[in-house]
Amino acid sequence: MERGDPRVRALVESVADTLGQRLASVTTDIQAVIEEAIPGLRADESARLLSASVGENVDAAIRAFVDGEELASAAAPAAAVDYARRLAQQDVPATLLIRAYRVGQARFFRHCIEELLRQSPGDHLEGLATLEMSEIVSDYVDQVVEQMLTTYARARDGWLRDRSAVLAMRVRELLGGAPVDVSATERALDYRFDQHHVGLLGWVDEPAAANALERIRGAIGALGRAVGCATAPLVIPADESSAWAWIPTKVSV
Q: In angstroms, how far is CA 11 from the centroid of its own chain?
């Protein structure tokens, strides 16, 4: 049966209409399942934002069922964006946000199938088998993706630390007057040497700050834009809370 069959469309719209009428209870149920499955989001001061995010996401999905909205151009709901920002500000790992969407999707899909079965005649063996298989696959993916994301994050952090160490070594060689391949070093640092530069040392007063280097890069980047740099400054971490930087200038200072 091809997508767009009027019989299928009628069932989908009917399920969407019924779930829309129960939006509040569906939202509450999905939020409860997410908080139970992900302790890091439970009893959080952002629970209200989580509820709003779930509600707007469910509402958007239901409207997509009815309107056939082009999902490729769909924008994330405002409440979902606000919730993601709040988690970032609280230093909640992105993996928990991703997992919340997986858990919420599985629970929402269960509501859809259960409502479809209620509205369809027959013994529902195929529908019940579909529901059971989808939940098994969802649980499997939830477990595996969690492990893959953890592995990815650790590998990426290690690679970034190694790359920063290599770049710092190249800068030390340059400053020490060691013979270097200028073209290769420019490519590695993504920075041109045939210009004037202003050297800086940037740091934060809270060495334990998780985003110290990001803050330093942001401040130096803003300074570069303020003085009209045509290219980005070179920023090399010195340690977890400080960095060396060179801002390209049009004239020597």
A: 34
**Tokens 């073209």 sit on residue:** 183
**Whether the Cβ atoms of residue 163 and residue 174 lie closer than 8 Å to each other:** no
Nearest to 130 by CA among 159, 145, 110: 110
The structure tokens 């149920």 sit at 29
Scan for tokens 């919420």, then name that residue: 104
Cα within 13 Å of Cα(203), Cβ side: 9
In contact, 229 and 191? CB cutoff 8 Å: no
Residue with tokens 């079965």: 117
Structure token digits, residue 129: 């088998």
Encode pLDDT of 58-73 as tens digits. Answer: 998 888 888 765 666 6
Question: pTM of the prediction?
Answer: 0.59
Burial class (CB in 10 A: 0-12, 13-18, 19+), 24: exposed
Candidates 41, 34, 26; CA nearest to 87 is: 41
Write the pLDDT tens digit of every residue in 88-108.
877 788 888 888 999 999 999
Of residues 119, 111, 57, the one with CA closest to residue 82: 57
Q: Is 165 helix (H, G, I), strand (E, B) or coil?
A: helix
